[in-house]
Amino acid sequence: MEALASRRSTRVYTPRSRTPRSPTGSPTPARMASSSPPVAGTSWTAEHVMAVGRDSTDRLVEQPADTPGRYATVFSMRAGEAIAFVGIVDVCVLQGMATVYEQCVGARWQRVYSPTSHPLASIRAISDDKETGEADDGEIDAIRALWAQRAGGVVVVVRTVQCGLESLGRVSPHADVFKLRPLAQRLRAQGGAEDSDVEAEVRLNAVLGMPGFAPVLYVTTDLQLLRVPTDWTQVLERSAQAPVQLNAAFAQVPPVYVVAGAQGLGKSTFARLLTNQLVSRFGRAFHMEADLGQSEFAAPGALTLNLLDSAVCGPPFAHVGQREPYHAVYLGAVTPKNDPDRYAAGVAQLARAYHEYPAGDRVVPLVVNTQGWVRGLGLDLLYTLCEHVRPTHYVQVHDMQGDGQPLLDFDALESCDPQVTLVSAVGGDLAAGRGQRLAAPELRTLALLSHLYQAESTSVSGIGGMQHIERPVWASHVALAARRPLAVPLSDLIVWLGDEDVAASQLPRALNGTLAGLVCVARAPGVSAHEWSDAEIRGLRNDSGLSDQAAAELSEQGARILLRSQAKDLSIPHVVYGHPNLRSTTFTTHVLVRSIDVSAGVAYLVLPPIASALLDRVIGLVKGPGAGAFGIEVPAWAMVDGGYRERAMGASAAANRRPRRLARAAKRQKFVEQADETNVGIQEAPYLSVEVDE
Question: What is the dihedral of CA 585, 592, 480, 609, to 10 degrees?
Fold first, then answer.
């Protein structure tokens, strides 16, 4: 193994990462009694700043700096300066070059999400001698004209954003992740506060701050700062500059990166940064998510292959469910432990879909984010993944406590001889124990709620035939239980139960109020063994619903199928004790089965907005294994609005202050919220009946 590492690995070890300079003109923070003194998050000299607002005719105009509710802020930076912040903003650069999340920003708006639950983003000025090119937005040209007479440097524009994600705390226990607590409160938790430090951050926010954008002067122990290690930067730079390899036929070989390592070392962050670099270089890149528990672009429980043509700047819950997968396989669990064969088959199908992608003369690279289970069966699955993906580059993230050797022996794999690179785990704030790091179940809940509470958006585009919501919006003020569902005839659906043995008579009860995977006919080029036309998809249904032949053709071989014709009840769905066909079908999104109306033969589904354009291809639902088998489920408190949750939690806290006997009785009490005489809580009836207006 030592010979293997020395022969094919490139190991660069830099234990300390870059630290921004202290802000000019601001006092250096005094050493506190705490073992973790605050870290400088912003190094910026306030030379030139311009506030932008709108006049009575909705025209962009310059405003005084102290005008409340400004629309945008324009400021210049020197090369090497950085501004860390909390919030949701659109960023563009009018002059020079700057980066956010290690991604270069040009003269077009880049949406950036920087919550306190994850390492904070920073706007870093790189160079002031680069032209940004022509803007693709009229507002950018108008702002450039307002700034025209001012000094140079790296000129950055930050525009406020109100998309609804900042209000996700109404339905989540992790409230206000996009709000920055005052520095006095943050420093007080560390054992003291200096008046000069507090005044400096107040001045900084008075100059730059606006709704949705709160600059951070000092990164206290309740925050994290994203500081990319030097060896990460070297790998990212090589990926953006290294020549494309050629095979024996002198054809270009697209780069295929597999990112591996144990849990909690920063694999997902590195894979996201690497994908952004490859998108910037090649225009397009694939991202394969092989971590069921912490998916990047879909809610947990699915293996997904996504085609990207733009960078993503933010944590997964900020962009989950906004892209139609190029191809995906739904397992409904957060780990492959209970069904490793299905996981391996899904990985093989996604790898086949990538290798059969009709790229033409275009080079389309692939980044694979693997799971953190790297021992025993998990290591065997990692070997299986590499056999099918055939990586050209293998990047392993490791901590300094290990032996520093690759997890895999690639001599044991045929036709797989990648360049092996070992990089250190993300350090700095995380290693120092800074920040309110959320546990894996909390991150999954946050991603799931963000996915389900998205609202319809008009900014929908497509890449390679796949739908993409460019400017997503959220509506957390409308409870899931109060949303108007889509009525789908049961006769038009196939219900795949996997390995569960549920009697057909109990199927409505088993599906009612659960989270399921929405399955569509696969249409991505090269994925399906048969290219489905629109007429053929329509031909899957007849006058009585989905045909028996379609149910058999769209299910895996060997599955046990209870056809509607056999049950002599044409109002029920086809029930399959097995899984969907991996090549003919694809998972699209999660849906909430709001209710089942057996008498009417209708299922009421709450669908995320990405599914709106795919309804003609929907063919069925996949039921997950349930919470007892590492399955995905929606928390009961997430089904109702924030006011209900707050009152329920407040009543529970009051009960805990009473005698123990009364407290136990209060915990058994059910809270039901009545709003406009409509029950939006979770009912105890066998089936939730919902009346849908015509």
Answer: 10
Containing H/E element for 245?
strand 245-246
Distance CA 342, CA 348 (A): 10
- Distance of CA 3 to CAs 6, 382, 399, 547, 659, Å? 5, 21, 21, 59, 68
Per-residue pLDDT of 176-213, as tens digits, reads 789 888 888 887 766 665 667 788 888 888 888 888 89
Share of the chain above pLDDT 70, in %: 81
With vertex at residue 353, the alpha carbon angle to CA 349 and CA 358, rounded to the nearest 5 degrees, is 165
Bridge partners of 257? 367, 393
| Residue whose C-alpha is closest to residue 552's, from 528, 574, 524, 533 | 574
343: nearest Cα among 383, 292, 299? 292
pLDDT digits (tens, 9 = 90+) for 122-136: 999 998 877 676 777
The string of DSSP letters for 469-521 reads ESS-EE-TTS-GGGSPPEEEEGGG-EEE-TT----GGGHHHHHTT-EEEEEEE
Percent of the chain scoring above 90 in pLDDT? 40
Range from 261-265, 341-345, 463-467, 525-529 carrying the lowest mean pLDDT: 525-529
State in Å, rounded, how far the first CA of the chain is from the last one. 68
What DSSP character marks residue 465? T
- Do the Cβ atoms of 573 and 596 come closer than 8 Å? no
pLDDT digits (tens, 9 = 90+) for 458-490: 767 777 678 888 889 998 888 888 888 999 999
Sort 627 into a burial class: Cβ within 10 Å, 0-12 / 13-18 / 19+. exposed
Across the strands, what pairs with 77?
154
Task: Please name the helix (run of DSSP H) or strand (run of DSSP E) that holds residue 73, with its range, or none.
Answer: strand 72-77
**How far is it, in rounded angstroms, from Cα 194 to Cα 189?**
13
Closest CA to 556 of 388, 346, 325: 346
Number of neighbours of residue 189 by Cβ within 10 angstroms: 13
**Tell me, what amino acid is at 509?**
R
Q: Strand runs (DSSP E) across 578-651, as ranges? A: 585-597, 602-606, 618-623
